[in-house]
Design goal:
The chain has four helices and no strands. It is mainly alpha-helical. The two termini are 52 Å apart. The relative contact order is 0.11. It is a multi-pass membrane protein. It comes from Trichogramma brassicae.
């Protein structure tokens, strides 16, 4: 429980730091326009902050999201037996009105079942 809270804090701080790096980059570009200097690259501290923030966000999100599932469907299907492949319990309806359409259906037979 505490580890998940720590990962949420790391993710939040990573997003906050990433937002700060983006704001710093915009501010640096504005400064270059005001002083009429040519833009070549961002200062190294903004680049390092952006990359470190990105890794902090990725680390936090990977731990908050939980376990990854295998992309291949075969991995999930290997653990199931042949009988359970077509077992769809939500569609198994045994008592329905369709039996009344059968030519062998009689009302007395339905009353005896109740």
């Amino acid at each position: 429980m505490a580890a998940k809270a720590i990962h949420k804090i790391v993710t939040f701080l990573g997003f906050l730091s990433l937002l700060h790096a983006a704001f710093s980059a915009v501010q640096h570009r504005s400064y270059l326009r005001i002083t009429e200097q040519e833009f070549t690259t961002l200062p190294i501290d903004i680049i390092i902050q952006g990359v470190a923030s990105l890794f902090a966000v990725m680390y936090g999100v990977m731990h908050i999201a939980g376990d990854f599932k295998e992309i291949r469907a075969v991995v999930d299907l290997e653990n199931k037996s042949w009988e359970t492949f077509r077992n769809l319990p939500s569609f198994q309806i045994f008592n329905h009105r369709g039996k009344a359409l059968s030519p062998e259906y009689t009302v007395e037979e339905a009353d005896r079942r109740r």
